[in-house]
Amino acid sequence: MKNLLRIVQRTCSGDDVTVSRRKFLTMSSAMLAAPVLPACSGPSVIPTNGIPRSAYDDNSTAEQVTERIDLSGKIVVVTGCNSGIGYETMRVLALRGAHVIGTGRTMKKAIAACESVAGETTPMQLELSDFDSVSACAKSIANIDAPIDVLVCNAGMYGGDRELVNGVEKQFAVNHLGHFLLVNLLLERLFLAQQGRVVVVSSRAAYGSAPETGILFDDLSMQNRYSAGLAYGHSKLANALFSLELARRLEGTRVTSNALHPGVIRTRIVRHESFLLRTGFSLLSKIAGKSVEEGAATSCFVASHPSLSTTSGRYFEDCNAVTVVGDSHMHDTEQAARLWQESERLTREYLPPTSARINTR
């Protein structure tokens, strides 16, 4: 990013007199796309104490991190299976022997994705902004009448004009509340597994682009302050805090919960934005981003690696547990607990009976 800034500054000062108008516009659009990417300054990450470092890094692919892992007999749910890292996550886990239930916003998309990969897959329709759809999807999965070994909360959206879903900002509703409801509806199936895992795809935007105060409990509609980047960071912080509180509530069980940042990847996540921003995101992701194969690596690692069977409540980047230091709310247990309570309030009519939920201590 700093190099890009220097290039644009050099261009504007006349030092690079050979730059074309198209090149300048492309670089400028990349500057506009910067809010989509993690901040260049601010909070940073350090290795998490007590969690052994893996042999993998930002160049590892999903196939590499799952090599020699046999998932035969396992059932894995992957939301957003029809494109990007969700598709690659499904493909690789199915390749390793898992029966993958892949969800898409439409059944047509889910079927097309599932039929295009080798291995055993089952398509399901899931529209995360529609709680009736979430409830119906969870019921269909439960009707398979088998344990769920892994639930990968991968699907998500970025951008667009401010829009409300059930009274809250849409990215918060889709990226967080839809998955919050799905997980709660499927927990009984996860408890039946020998070792269940919930894997929540968050982002560095959770500590690079979220509001300074953390979750906007008094303004979840973001009426007072809205931008696509801020709303996305807000929803991704909610993802991380949800996983943190879920892990706390799952203590003493065989089910774990961990969150992760997949990397900056050239996917269709900014498809709702302007052509200029989409062009900029494409350029920046080429400069500092990962391939889809690399982007799915951390999801597949956290979902399947035997070394993580008891690891819970952690945040991962590049296939390793890290702790965010600096001014952020990534490990704020008080906000995490409050977010859980607020999420329960917002989804109450769709949740299982209180007696069937995990502890509320």
> What's the CATH architecture?
3-Layer(aba) Sandwich
Task: Assign the structural class, choosing from mainly alpha, mainly beta, alpha/beta, alpha+beta, or little secondary structure.
Answer: alpha/beta
- Overall structural domain count: 1
* Oligomer category: single chain
Order of helices and strands: HHEHEHEHEHEEEHEHHEHHHEEH
Q: What share of the residues lie within helices?
A: 40-55%
Report the radius of gyration as a whole number of Å: 20 Å
CATH class: Alpha Beta
- The amount of beta strand, in percent, is 5-15%
Average the pLDDT over all residues and give the rounded result: 87
Tally of DSSP β-strands: 11
User: Which fold name corresponds to the CATH topology?
Assistant: Rossmann fold
Q: State the fourth-level CATH superfamily.
A: NAD(P)-binding Rossmann-like Domain
Reading side by side through the largest sheet, how are the strands ordered? 1-11-10-9-8-5-2-3-4
Measured between the Cα atoms of the first and last residue, the distance is: 44 Å
Number of helices: 13
Largest sheet, in brief, is: 9 strands, mixed
Task: Provide the low-confidence segments as ranges.
Answer: 1-40
Anisotropy-based shape: globular
Structure description:
This protein is of the alpha/beta class. The protein has a single domain, classed as NAD(P)-binding Rossmann-like Domain (Rossmann fold). It has 13 helices and eleven strands. It has helices at 2-13, 21-32, 62-65, 84-95, 107-115, 131-142, 170-191, 205-208, 228-249, 275-288, 292-295, 297-304, 333-347, and strands at residues 44-47, 75-79, 99-104, 121-125, 150-153, 164-165, 168-169, 197-201, 256-261, 315-317, 320-325. A nine-stranded mixed β-sheet has the order 1-11-10-9-8-5-2-3-4, with helices on both faces. Strands 6-7 form a two-stranded antiparallel sheet. Helix 5 links the parallel strand 3 (99-104) and strand 4 (121-125). The longest helix has 22 residues, at 170-191. Residues 1-40 have low confidence and may be disordered.
